Amino acid sequence: PGGKAIMTIHLSAFNFMFGLLMDNKTAAEYAAKITRLKQAMLEAGFSFGIIFPVLLTDNGGEFSCVQAIEENPDGSMSKLFFCNPNTPSDKPQIEKNHTMMRDILPKGSSFDDLTQEDVNLVFSHVNAVKRKEFNGKSAYDLFCFSYSQELATVLGISYVPAEEVIQSPKLLKK
Known about the structure:
Layout (H helix, E strand, L loop, with lengths): L4 E7 L4 E7 L4 H17 L4 H4 L2 E4 L8 H5 L8 E4 L9 H13 L11 H13 L1 E2 L5 E2 H8 L2 H6 L20
Parallel strand pairs: 3-4
Antiparallel strand pairs: 1-2, 5-6
């Protein structure tokens, strides 16, 4: 309760996920972070609305600034939809990635000492895991093939060789 939170964004076609570290779990904080992300993408030549035309989320109050989430600085739109309460089957692929994230950041652990760079490192390792359903490719591989390594970098995700992937709390031990 209270403290920092992580908003995860997942592209289901690739099982690619990244996270934005939130100072708190308020609608204003979420709207501000998503607005900054959209601007950073636009400055790098990418349209948030093209990459994320549909957004599916839970019914949390932090997503109540619908206009800030749906409108994009380049004039494109993203449509926001809400899952049914307590229905993880509405978004099963994200649940697997959350499980992998929780291997590194166990449930109940505080995010208060994390930085955005820590969150980026966590999701870089999650995205580096080779997936059977992708014929041994990683989410990172597929995302970069379809979009670009530059966009992955804008989203805070970097390449991690398979033999260097760490899926435990040891990843963030400094």
